[in-house]
# Entry
Amino acid sequence: MKEVLFLRAQNQPTVLPRVFRILLQHGLLVDAMSFKVTPNPEFVQMTVTAGEQGISQRIVKLLQKLIEVVEVKLIYPEDCLMEK
Amino acid sequence: MKVTGAQAIVNCLLEQGVDTIFGYPGGAVIPLYDALYDSPLKCVLPVHEQGAIHAADGYARASGRTGVCIATSGPGAANIVTGLATAYMDSVPIVAITGQVSTSQLGRDAFQEIDIVSVTLAMTKHSFLVTDVKKLPEIIRSAFAIAAAGRPGPVLIDIPSNIQTAELDYLSETVSIECDKSDLSLAPEVLNGILRSKEVLKTANRPVLLVGGGVVGSNISQTVQAFAEKLAIPVVSTLMGLGSLPSSHSQFLGLTGMHGHVPANKVIALADTIIAIGTRFSDRTTGDRTRYGSDKTIIHIEIDPAEIDKNIPAHIPLVGDLGLIVSRITKEVEGQSYSEWWETIRNWQNNYELDYNLEEMTAPWVMHFVSSRMKDESAVFVTDVGQNQLWAAQHLNIYHPRSWLTSGGCGTMGFGLPAALGAQMAVPEKRVVHIAGDGGFKMTGMELFTAVNEKLPIISIVLNNQSLGMVRQWQQLFYNARYSSTYLPEFDFVAFARSCGAEGAAVNTQQEFKLIFEEALKNKKPFVIVVNIHREDMVTPMIAPGATLDDYVKV
# Structure
């Protein structure tokens, strides 16, 4: 099963372009994406799944460097099922 | 106290301890320049915005303080893009303030509107578009904190003109310029990694210490030298790391990489262990990265976690504050001798001596002469990009950190002169020697006029081979000597220098150079020395792109 990128960031208009730039630089073909404001409106969260190549640790590290980003991790859907 | 946004910007700059700014006015920063008119800040007016940002960069590299640059919206902002990229690639702290069209005009393709935040996403550590004047002081303070913290880098603040004229309640803040490291401690995995490194170094037979720009940027040269001396380990440097250890140090073997010194490249090629501090293992440093570390243990000490395993996989990554890690590892390791290894290395060194042609005028001789002549003076060498840069890197002796400034990562031609200008303003007690080729000098050469206006005694050595030498060298070696667009028509640099109000002279012989250099040293004005060299001269040794560090191109 493919990994899912989970990201939480400050609710700023520049968050999306900064994230997209890093995905673009690594030629990531996005399969699916979600974006929403969290119950605390100061933050947003997004999830991304990508094509064949998957999402590398390097992308995670680069996203972690973004000043507005609070948390980034890769989630494996099997783990979620196990947790449930 | 009620002040305008423009006044708040000036107040914040003063709070941060800024004394000099490099900027070019324009429609969208007139309110800011009006506030600067009454301020104690020294405003340097270059000829072009690119000059402003490279000067701010040179100021930052030479002093270690954050450089400040101002440009107007639209073309002004676009003109600093190359400078931001240059600073970003070399991790230089800069705060760039750009004017922007007023908030009511944003997104309407107004006159001189460019969405500079979008344009610079890929070459800034962070950026802000200010839309609420009340947040302006907080944003400027954050920008300075972000630019200097961790791995430094450029931060852009885009400020619409109506934000500069709007009023806010301004509360001043005292800023501690010194970074407080007392609360920093090393993570458990780093402490564990240090203990593993200790074991690796105990059993290593052929270790080498590789120092990068991070050693200079984080001001830990002495800590690194103490570590190297305790271990008695050979030390090599990347292009950006020159000056980390005095080049006269007995353990220092020189520059490694594409145009590195032979012993320095050999020691890397044959090492069984590399301890790398503050380097990102650029392709120009490693050559073929798949073979660079394949038979070695790599201990990578780095502040930026994203650099770990990017180019060269690390067996032991040590991520955190470089000074803290190196101090700790120095305490932990036991003194070694590596006597057999040193015997081999001394053998190479005895068989490899830099040979200077004492009759003909060559760039290596010029560098060698200037280096010897400036040995006892406090000199800062600032280079442009290309053959001149590599000749300087190979043949100048750099004794102190921040006395070697070069555009390493971005390789920005035209960087040299404006960066030299900024450096000379940052460290007026030192003498800045700028080294350029005839191609790069022309790119930003009009900043000579700025240097004249600021009465800066910069010595510019223009190595004139009437060609874009490094590209010409590649064309000769790899493109069947088809010199496509690399021969430059003759240009009278001396007349140009004089028309800017500087001094200038052209030389063809070593004797002439010696005399003119002495004259330039006595001079208080910028002085351009044009050194006419052969068009065919090449930078050697050279590793072919993508080859390993023991695979030299036959020249």
